[in-house]
Each structure stands twice: as structure tokens, then as C-alpha cells.
Model the fold of this input.
Amino acid sequence: NFTFRFPFLYGIVAYKKYGSAKTMIRYVLIGICMLSSCNNAQPPEQKENIDKLEENMSNKWDPPKDLDGYQIASTGPFVTRQKTFSRVRKAYQSKGPYLAWLLKQEGIISNKLELYFQAFKKEDLFLVWAKNESDRQFKLLKKYTICKKSGKLGPKRKEGDRQVPEGFYHIDLLNPSSSYHLSLHVNYPNPSDLILSDQERPGGLIYIHGKCATIGCLPMQDGPIEELYVLCTEAMNNGQKTIPITIFPFVPNDENLSIESKGEPRTTQLLWNDLKEGYNYFEKNKTLPKIKFNHNGRSQIED
Done:
């Protein structure tokens, strides 16, 4: 009924206007408060409770207003070469203090940084995991929103199909002069794709990039891609030659698999099962599984 829907509609309108999930939840709470007032049912502690809820919702990635004293000041041939490009220099200037603060919150030193990325297509979710090279387990560093979708759930199988790949990949190249501000190259096709995709035209040129347009890539908008680019530059400068990324169709729990697998080709169902195994391994251990690609296109975790 309307009394139930109104606060949530109020929040959705706020989200579309301001683009912030935190703002959306705030307006939902305000809507509930307004509704309660209209019904003459607002308890005396209502406003205090809402204030506490908003305080508890504060994002752990929101930096302090004053970031003086925070900066990433790495040296080395890789970062020096990257900083010869103006977009990279500007990204370090604008995002460096925040990233230095963010890494410090998790006890991670920029010149010891190692990264792992996860992307979830259905949820538009991009996770950055990080650790010091001497640490065993990764920590969740930050969540981002993928700006726009392309194609449907399911792997990329042919050039021009507008599909975002799904599988175990890595970032092997940083592009400081991208048409989409800055970009990170994903090594599609991987060994599995070379077997299961079109043998003549499997496609390629898959990137994580700025702006908000896509025909098969992962667009993040310019601000987020600057943060990701600086983090990748730091990790590669520290000797991490490639940065692993797993691209999932959705969060691969049993319920999602049961629902989404219906009607999908057998090869897609098997791929999703393999991705679930990798996801479960990382969730349990917070370490990366060693992935082996088999001659039939399947992937498995090596002991």
C-alpha cells in the first residue's frame, strides 16, 4: 500500500537525483519520519533514532576533511614513466592523499601493495582487495559501482556480441592515454575463452575504464578509474606484474545459480560452477586460488 511504498519512492527519487546510496537511505528515513508525522504517530525519540541510524551508516571509505600530510610519494621506473602522462600526474595529485589515507586505515603500505579485483555484473559491483606483499590474506579496501551494463548475463564468445567477459583474468596493461580517460586492460581471451569462444573472431580489447559508456567493457566513470589507476600503478611499481581480476555474472551463491542457470547453455552453467568454486575459496581463505585451465575449457583450483 501507499503508506509502505512512499518512503522508498522518496529514497529512489533522491538516489536518481544525487547518485548516492547513502543519500537514498537518508531520504528513506526522512520519508518514514514524515509518514509518521502525518499519521500523528511519531514517538518522541523518532528524530534521535534517525540521527543515530544516519551516524551508523557513515561510510568507512569517507575520508576526513583534512588530508594534509597524506600523499603517495613512490619512486621507481614504472611509476616515473606513468607520471610522464598528464592524466596520471593529475590522478596522483587529486586522488593520492585520499588513497594514502585509505591504505593507512587498513595497515597497508603503498610500496608493499598487492591487489585483487572482483566484478559482479548483475549487481554492478566492483570490489578492490588489497594486502601488503608479506601478508597472507587480502582485506577489502573499497567498493565501487560499475556505471553501465552491456549485453546480458553470460560470457563473451564472439567479437561484436557486446558481452562483458566472465572468468578468471588479470590486468596486464595500463593505458594512460585512453579515449575513456584512463583504462586497465583485461587479458580476454584467456585460455578458456580461446577454446570455447569463436575460433576466428573471439574479440578483445576489454578494458576497465573511465566515462560511462560501454560495448563490452567495465565503465567506472573518471573519478573511480583515477583511484583504480593509481592503485594499479603502485602495485605494478612494487613488482606485481599482473593484477588478478575475477569477473562474475552475479554473486555466485546457490540461490542465484539455481535461478540464473535455467535455460543457459551447458558450457555457461559449467563456467558459473567453476567461478563459484573460486569465489567460495576466496571467501573462506581471503587468499587467491591457483587456477588451472583444462583442455576442455573448464577451470579448476589446484591444490
Remarks:
- Confidence is low (pLDDT under 50) at residues 1-6, 14-18, 33-58.
- The chain is about 40% helix and 20% strand.
